[in-house]
Description:
Layout (H helix, E strand, L loop, with lengths): L3 E2 L3 E4 L5 H10 L6 E4 L5 E5 L16 H10 L3 H11 L4 E6 L5 H14 L15 H10 L5 E4 L5 H14 L5 E8 L3 H9 L20 E2 L1 E8 L10 E10 L12 H14 L8 E3 L6 H15 L5 E3 L2 H4 L6 H15 L19 E2 L11 E7 L4 E9 L2
Parallel strand pairs: 4-8, 5-6, 5-7, 11-12, 11-14, 12-13
Antiparallel strand pairs: 1-9, 1-10, 2-9, 3-4, 7-9, 10-15, 14-15
Amino acid sequence: MKIYLSRPGVFSAAGKNAEELWRSLLNGDQSGIKRYETFSGSTFFAARIDGSKLKPSSGRFDMKIIRIEEAALDQIGSIIEKAKSKYGEKRIAVCVGSCDNGTEFSLAGHRKYFENGAFPEDYSIEMQGADYVSTFIAEKYGLKGPVCTFSTACSSSAGALIKAAELIKSGICDAAIAGGIDIASDTTLVGFASLEAVSESITNPFSKNRSGITLGDGAAFFVLSKEPLDESVPEICLLGYGESCDAHHMTSPDPSGIGAKKAIEKALSNAKIKPEEVDYVNLHGTGTKFNDSMEAKAVDAVFGNYKVKCSTTKPITGHTLGAAGALELAICFAAVTNNVLPPQIWDGVFDEEMPKLNFVNKNSSLHQTKICLSNSFAFGGADACLVIKKEE
């Protein structure tokens, strides 16, 4: 069974819709990344969305993460309503990847608790429920199918998209709203800093001079369906997917890249294609020493002498954590739609200790593109890879 993708609804610091994001990627525009001071007094580069550009949400709990989510969803609202009309509210699933459990309200609520000995009257623990990013969508559109939230760190929304496809293929539903949403809250920034994973400058993936990640806000959502619903774009299918878990370490991947390699191989096998049929790989490419090294080994091991074109887009979007898989699939969607590849933005200094990958540069970004693979590798070795194809 083919699983069709609608155009994506996207909101990020690099663009408030898919078109703006695409222009930023092609132009190497890093203006969405700025230095911020956290509640701890520490400062970090982050790709944060300006809160003044967000409208209040229609949800029961109005917070930044839901405002961003709704801004992305509204871009595909007509497709959601079309699916609802065609299949009915009981036949549409919701699958969302996210790692943020209402940190915005949590911090404010706990400050009041420590000051006054009680939480504010409008505070509810439900605000911090992992399910709310998914429940909100079901409530917004009146959907009564399965509602699932996935929190496997950086592979969360890739896993959500996979589950959405599986629900459709199993016959449990006919369509699904799937994607991810996350924010680079102060808690997240300070937490990653405690792991010594945050770069002092804007992230510089795969360079010998790389020094860590740059975090970011972001959301991306698709409507997945068993038949095409979006006439505004070419027919693009989720051709295949693969998951693995190396369980090497709580926060560090297996340095050999074996887990990532298995996920890529499973995705290619599931898609029933050979490595040389892939036109482009969107790398996970966080800019940390261990992730980039193991990913380069995995890509080199799978693609061998076929030097597939690749790049990481996190120097423009920031690492959007649970939303990264969906956001980067939206980038792959744009690549196959436009027959253009997003260039690698970095200092160009290869790390000779890693296999040399075939990075896209601005002068070679024009490329006949039909099949793309997107990598998402997470804490605990929770790896997920997605393959999309533009139909003839």
